[in-house]
Amino acid sequence: MRTLVRYGYVPFMLLAVNGAGIAVAASGSSKLWLLGLLSLAIAASFVAERVLPYRADWNIPHDDDRRDAVHAVVNETLTLGSVAALPVLTAVASIDGVWPHDWPFVLQVLAAVLVADLGITLVHLASHRIPALWRLHAVHHSVKRAYGFNGLMKHPLHQTLETAAGVAPLVLLGLPTSVAYALALCVAVQLLLQHSNADYRVGPLRSVLALNQAHRFHHLKWSGVGDVNFGLFTLVWDHLLGTYSYDPERRFTSDDLGMAAKPHYPGGYLAQLAEPFRRRGACTADEPRPEVAAKRMPDPASR
């Protein structure tokens, strides 16, 4: 079973779950099937993390399970709402004749993934550079363990900004609603994989796909050290931007996660919603730890 999870979990999520979602979206079937597939993905995430954990202690709630569930429900509801609004947005803002409707549906989804990945990556990078954005994004970096639901733990305003950056160019291109539904499922599945506590393996693809082996470096708590590997779906843009970092010898514990400049970030859901708007909501600059995973980017504005 452990071997099956180690090598089969990622293909199951990326190919089976996403593939089924793409088929549902392409066929015009009830979108409730997509919610069922998302539930399956969440269940598979929890099973994989318990069969083959990277760290067993990360499977133990740190008074965060209910809060993270609320984050997930709120943010996924916002995602569904944004998809539902697409027909109006594309009717007003799209450029006629640009979207490749004649492509196979799966290729349309892959194209949407790549475009969205670039927009989300750039906003993610900016959120580590611009203090006002960092206030919102800091919620996501306050975690004390890495597990699937971490990916869905975001301030709703920051998620809205990331979604807008990823979807706006697609709206201009005339993104079909059916493709958007498939994309929404792919995003949720990717977030579960990217923050997973499952000790899976993907071989050389770890330097191409933005999965947990590389993303853990992004959650290192020291200023400048964790400002790497910003991609959601791929690490292609990180390679081009010079923000890719990986060290195969590095092991992580809870002591590596969170924010060194703000170790006592509020843990409650409502407190996390309010924190960016408090005077104390910005982190002061801290001295980055001297050891760096591999490559590192120049120190950004204060974390």
UniProtKB/TrEMBL annotation:
One of its GO terms (cellular component) is membrane. The chain crosses the membrane at residues 7-26, 32-52, 73-93, 105-126, 170-193. The keyword Transmembrane applies. GO terms for molecular function: iron ion binding; oxidoreductase activity. Keywords: Membrane, Transmembrane, Transmembrane helix. Residues 286-303 have a biased composition (Basic and acidic residues). It comes from the Bacteria. The keyword Cell membrane does not apply. One of its GO terms (biological process) is lipid biosynthetic process. Residues 282-303 are annotated as: Disordered. InterPro entries: Fatty_acid_hydroxylase (IPR006694), Sterol_Desaturase_Related (IPR050307). It is found in: Membrane. Residues 110-243 form the Fatty acid hydroxylase domain. This is Sterol desaturase/sphingolipid hydroxylase (Fatty acid hydroxylase superfamily). The lineage of its organism: Bacteria, Bacillati, Actinomycetota, Actinomycetes, Pseudonocardiales.
